What we know:
By secondary structure, the protein is an alpha/beta fold.
Amino acid sequence: xxxxxxxxxxxxxxxxxxxxxxxxxxxxxxxxxxxxxxxxxxxxxxxxxxxxxxxxxxxxxxxxxxxxxxxxxxxxxxxxxxxxxxxxxxxxxxxxxxxxxxxxxxxxxxxxxxxxxxxxxxxxxxxxxxxxxxxxxxxxxxxxx
Length: 145
Ligand code: RB5
């Protein structure tokens, strides 16, 4: 299977998880685009969310991962971009379902909400899960119309 290209970004509230998840993905051989932030200095999550979504919309990356304190701000911004289906997940069931049913192309996580081990499991399951198509394709198509 061809390796997915993944754009990843966080604000200061998600910086530590972003660094750990990025390392984890690189160790598995994924090609990653780290759009920042690059320190724990305070920054604005909408800027980062748009950098990740731009990589997907332009075809440079296949999927994106966005992390902030709650994941909420990132998911709100990402979902305003046409063609982006961002899923804020705090459990593995939702992560799998967001791929199988919603064909999510961005995963949002909250560093201040879930532990790092759960975050890693969510990332792994989300990356492995395939879209089921069929009746779900019709519904995904309806999102954009
Ligand atoms: C930053 O303090 C925090 O507001 C941000 O990381 C995120 O949780 C926003 O949704």
